[in-house]
Design a protein that fits this description.
CATH architecture of the largest domain in chain A: 3-Layer(aba) Sandwich
Radius of gyration of chain A: 26 Å
CATH class of the largest domain in chain A: Alpha Beta
Largest sheet of chain A: 6 strands, parallel
Order of helices and strands of chain A: HHHHEHEHEHEEHEHEHEHEEHEE
Strand order of the largest sheet of chain A: 2-1-3-4-5-11
CATH superfamily of the largest domain in chain A: Response regulator
Distance between the termini of chain A: 80 Å
CATH topology of the largest domain in chain A: Rossmann fold
Largest interface: A-B, 54 and 54 residues
Number of domains of chain A: 3
Shape of chain A: elongated
Oligomer: homodimer
Chain lengths: 342, 342
DNA sequence: TGTACGCTCGGAACCGGTTCCATGAATGGA
DNA sequence: TCCATTCATGGAACCGGTTCCGAGCGTACA
């Protein structure tokens, strides 16, 4: 494995010059640079990342802390992150923390102990507030996707607006009897998680229009659990005319349950979700769209700009902890309509 | 940021001894070791990974090359990999290559140029044969999940058996007129991709039992595209009595299309898939189960054992390129039954 | 009492880049 | 013609661990 030394010797220059020539620094004549580059090419030289890290203190890597990777939202954010990081010639170091409490916290501690990255993005629900503030003291740019948090820069859907739009859509169609169903958060609850904000928005709309009040229902996160719970709910005599689901996964479970019980959608029951997962379209699910991959790209763009200002972290006294919220987009399909005339 | 030097001075020993004490090497008395550890703790010492990498040549990182991360199969494998890697105190470096041809190959080249890992797992369909053989020459343990390949150690479902079991299940129920629907592979086709092996197995079963022959149908990968294609297929007059789908995603699209067309499942149409995705259960989809997360854990276990033998790669003359195939498991639910009496 | 051996520990040479600073040559202006 | 800059380049000191090798000491055995 050839070293910089070998390249320098082959090109007849010093290590210092070879380094400058290959890294693109200026202060090297064009002819020398070309000679060094050719020598490097001939020898098949690949600079040692470890040595560069040690010398520069930069890893050219950004870390991602996520509670899971095999669900749509997280996978999409991660996809956006990976794509944008690649565009900036940065690598992605993945910490799949899993559910908090089930080993997730030990994995977090391992990150604090060993993780070496230039910037960090945490996908929400993986951490509690105390952990987030420890991250903030790491001296590197930290951003969160999926949750507005005071501890770091953050990016996420405007959940309040999403919940509001979903409920308002059904109210506009004439519904006066709605039920909100949300997925249970399997992790340590944070003050106001995404689903809680959607719920609160629903309740505000409900109060504003004087709708019939029904207690919010929580169903399991697994598709199977959600489906069974939805079935039981819809089987009751006084079911509502419309259902506002916290996520598309829940909405789809409701759709399936309705079908199995012979309840016609949207004639007898309207259903609306949030997310616009890929399967929402074929099912004709009306929903509130968000684009997590875009959030992932944006969070990396921010990290890169922060890095450009303070390459070695320690972003002086007043770090940017602003919040970017994305406007939800109502996508009307065929799962919502005016309520049946009683 | 305290260095090893500081710890050594605080503990009144040399750097060499401090290093040995903290890394757990022997040749250090118990009392000295404890003194050093306390000093390190007091100072909040965290060893520089970059320095360790440079000195040892080991990154304690394994790389993952995957065509995507936001689909069930890939996400699940990645989850298994991350979990197992964590258990071995290794990090995961993620390269989300995307579809081959759409920038995927440039990302691969970037990995070849910059990627520094102790071991590598490629999730299939991200690469063509030539790339795989280049990886094999990297001098580190390389394994593939999802595809048996001669270029590396590999792990995947026995696709032949899966295709066979699926078809045989329907034949046993009495079907004589089956159609195979598979998802189009959006990437550079490899000689025998997973879906091709399932298809061939289907065709063998079909020939063996002298079933009515129908040309295999390919549908788009997107849920929406698959659904539309399935709808068109089922709307034809002479539809088959049973459908063997290459994956659950396709099977679910068929199920939905059948429902919308008023075709009763399983009375009028049987449908079977492969995968057992989480949504298969609520839909009552009969399927062939596989457990990609387990494959991910196993591939890491293999890499770790290879690393234990040759910590610095270069696994001499005859690297292990054997193939592990997992037995498929038939999960019978309510989407399959005897064909309707004509 | 002398020698051999084992154990703990320190000195110093790595690993392979980056970068500060000094040097020498070439250029431009007075 | 001379001095002041600018520019390309080389020498050497880093970055922060790991590890080889040898020194010193204590014990055991002849």
């Amino acid at each position: 494995m050839p070293r910089l030394d070998d390249v320098a010797r082959a090109a007849g220059v010093s290590k210092a010059t070879a380094s400058r020539a290959l890294s693109g620094a200026d202060g090297v004549s064009a002819t020398t640079r070309e000679r060094v580059q050719r020598a490097a090419g001939d020898l098949g030289f690949r600079a040692s990342g470890a040595a560069r890290r040690l010398a520069t203190g930069l890893t050219r890597t950004i870390g991602v802390l996520t509670p899971s990777v095999d669900r749509w939202y997280f996978g999409s954010v991660l996809h956006g992150i990976a794509h944008a990081a690649d565009a900036h010639e940065h690598d992605v170091l993945l910490y799949d923390l899993g559910a908090f409490g089930r080993g997730g916290h030990e994995k977090f501690e391992r990150f604090m102990r060993r993780g070496e990255v230039d910037g960090l993005v945490t996908i929400t629900w993986s951490l509690v507030g105390g952990d987030l503030s420890r991250l903030a003291e790491l001296g590197i740019p930290v951003a969160t996707v999926g949750e507005p948090t005071p501890h770091s820069r953050s990016f996420c859907l405007d959940d309040e607006a999403a919940g509001e739009q979903a409920a308002e859509h059904l109210v506009r169609l004439g519904h006066r009897d709605l039920l909100h169903i949300m997925s249970e958060t399997e992790v340590q609850p944070i003050d106001a998680s995404s689903s809680d904000r959607r719920r609160r928005a629903f309740e505000r709309v409900s109060a504003r229009h004087g709708l019939r009040t029904r207690p919010v229902v929580t169903v399991p996160t697994s598709p199977d659990g959600a489906h069974l719970a939805a079935r039981e709910l819809l089987a009751r005599a006084d079911r509502p005319t419309g259902i506002v689901a916290g996520t598309d996964d829940v909405a789809l479970a409701v759709l399936l349950a309705a079908h199995q019980l012979g309840i016609r959608v949207p004639d007898e029951l309207s259903v609306i979700g949030v997310d616009d997962v890929p399967t929402a379209a074929p099912f004709g699910l009306t929903t509130i769209r968000q684009d997590p991959a875009q959030h992932g790209e944006d969070v990396v763009a921010w990290i890169m700009s922060a890095l450009a200002q303070h390459p070695h972290g320690r972003p002086d006294a007043d770090p940017d902890r602003s919040h970017t919220s994305y406007a939800p987009v109502l996508v009307i399909r065929s799962s919502t309509a005016a309520p049946p005339r009683a």
